[in-house]
Specification:
The protein is α+β, with helices and mostly antiparallel strands. A hairpin with a 5-residue loop joins strand 8 and strand 9. Helix 1 packs antiparallel against helix 2 and helix 3 runs antiparallel to helix 4.
Amino acid sequence: MKNLLAFALAIGAIAAGAIFLIISTQDRAEDAEMHAALRDLQLDVLRQVNLIVNSPNDKVGYDRQQVVRKNMEGIEALRKKYPTRLKADQFIDEMEAKAKAGEKDKAKTAEYRVRYDYAKDIFNNYLKDGAYKPVLTGNSGGIRFDVVSIKRAVEGGQEGLRWEVLIWGVPTKEQLQLANIEIKNVLHFAELETSGKRKGQPKRTVVTMNLSPAMPYVLLDKTWEWFPEWPIGVAAGYYQGVPMFDSRTDRANITLTGNLRTLGGTMVPVEIEWKHVKIDGSWKGPPGGQWDDKEVQPLNDEDLKEQGADPAEFDEAAPAPDEKK
């Protein structure tokens, strides 16, 4: 009788082990199947991201929305097919659970939480439907650089401007080398010209400012690894402490320069220029404040030419492109 009981228990253990093995094998197979489908979706989305980098500026908004929609629909379909996988906020929830259990560094996990929340905020504000209208957009060297917001901010106790950016088609941030942002500010003075072809118009000058190096203060380049709703091939970041504009600034020419470095070491130049950018009042300091250059003086056309500025280019009689209706 004892032998029979022992035999029955052994058979039960073998059966339980077999069932566990089958379930475990099925679980691993389903996980591999889901990840393969996710990789296929991301590869297709990445191809589309690389295509729309070169879309004309007046068409890229619609193209962007279609790519974002394709990615979102694909992720929703995977979540329906695999309801226990790809859970919302799964990445950060698991990391924080491990940190609480002592399996992850708590300080590093807290840093991840800050950046994760920033990424979710950018996603919800701009990428969820892709319908944002950038302040500035341009493409060069295989990337599209969108400045999606310019706002006043006090960071580190210092007031300045915060530029939020999205970069489409970007490689890893180690391969992105943005060298300089040159800003040529056109300042208008209260005094009027008393002679010449601009008689009766405000005197003016051009002041050049360089932001170098020009990499964002924070740049997140693999956010799709945190949550798959984020379209692959799109980086997000921000500049902080950008000087505010002189209160007399009317418009500016802004040029971004840098390089992309290929795996083979080839440098692919990046140069994006935005001309006649109308300067919003909220980007300027108060009249006579710390952001106004007390030493700057108005220049005539000949003096402007000597400083490398083309007076005709800044002729206020020619409206900025966004003012032409």
